[in-house]
Amino acid sequence: MAKPKTFLLVEDDAYYVLFVATEFEKIPVLTNLQVVRDGVEARDYVSAAGDYVDRRRYPLPDVILLDINLPRVNGFEFLAWLRTESPDSHRLIPVVVMSSSDSPEEVMRAYTLGANSYLIKPVNWEEFRERIKILATYWAAHVQTPQIEPLILPG
Question: Cα–Cα distance between 144 and 139 in angstroms, integer?
């Protein structure tokens, strides 16, 4: 049996987190959804630092779902860190930016920083629900993501 794809949702809005988690449970593909609230926690998660050192409990994500407007370290800052400062192999993790902004400047900035796609969160919940199902199914069942080995920490 195939290992479930791990998605890391970086989102500070509890309603969006609940909504995305609910839709992930409904898709016919086995997934593992992990959630962090901001870019600092996302960096720690990807780096296996702080509360996220246990890779059995917090596996390296196959896909990152990234909000832009986050406290402490925003989505753009996290994406820049991931693509330039994280360990080399981690830089390959696909990132789907999920934002309520359709600003051409923000879309351009996300792609310039290395986003793999940019999803606009629609105001209509039914439309958002459908996009989440399609996104989760696409990345979990139809896309081959890179096999990235987790860091082996000394000790």
Answer: 8
| CATH annotation of 20-101+108-142 | 3.40.50.2300
Distance CA(10)–CA(5), nearest Å, equals: 16
Cα separation of 22 and 1, whole Å? 24
Sign of CA dihedral 33, 37, 40, 44: negative
Each domain of the chain, given as residue ranges in start order, spans 20-101+108-142
Q: pLDDT tens digits for 1-29?
A: 568 899 999 999 999 999 999 999 998 88
pLDDT tens digits along 58-113: 999 999 999 999 999 999 999 999 999 998 789 999 999 999 888 999 999 999 99
- Paired residues of 36 in beta bridges: 10
For the CA atoms of 17, 140, 145, 65, what is the dihedral angle to 10 degrees?
-10
Higher pLDDT, 151 or 135: 135
Residue 93's nearest CA partner among 18, 7, 1 is 7
Amino acid type, 24: F
pTM exceeding 0.85: yes
For residue 132 the two structure tokens come to 């989440």
